[in-house]
Amino acid sequence: MQRQLRLLGIEPGWDLPGLTNWIDRQIRHPDIIRTQSTLFIRRAIEGLLESRGLSVEQLAQQKFRLKNSLAEKISNHRRARAKQSFQQVLLESRSRAIISGRMTT
Predict the structure, then answer these.
(1) Are 74 and 29 in contact (CB under 8 A)?
(2) What is the rounded (10 degree) CA torsion for 52, 57, 63, 67?
(3) 22, CA 20 to 30 Å: which among 48, 52, 68, 91?
(4) Please, are residues 13 and 31 in contact by the beta-carbon 8 Å criterion?
(5) Burial (CB count <10 Å: 0-12, 13-18, 19+), residue 105
(6) Exposed e or buried b per residue across 49-74, where buried means at least 16 C-beta atoms within 10 angstroms of its C-beta
(7) How far apart are CA 57 and CA 10, in angstroms?
(8) Tens of pLDDT along 32-53?
(9) Which residues contact 104 (CB under 8 A, 6 or more apart)?
(10) What Å distances lie between residue 5 and 12, 48, 89, 103, CA to CA?
């Protein structure tokens, strides 16, 4: 029976918290606390459920692809945050140089 359901693109026995936690455990993110990562993953899954009209069981059937996609999204957010932080440091350094009267180029 389960094999037949898998052939139909359904992996039975999954619910939203279970899929969220499985994906969270599969993605390495020591810089992100678990409550933030699970919230991000859950919202992404809920978005797919609503926008594509899929069931959790259908998403679970593609859980490895979904995990890879979410890992990439997290990496993209991480890179954007690092870039933003770097630009902020540069801006603050430049502001201090202007205030102290030591403008260098």
Answers:
(1) yes
(2) 60
(3) 52
(4) no
(5) exposed
(6) eeeeebebbbbbbeeeebbeebbeeb
(7) 5
(8) 999 999 999 999 999 999 999 9
(9) 97
(10) 7, 20, 54, 68
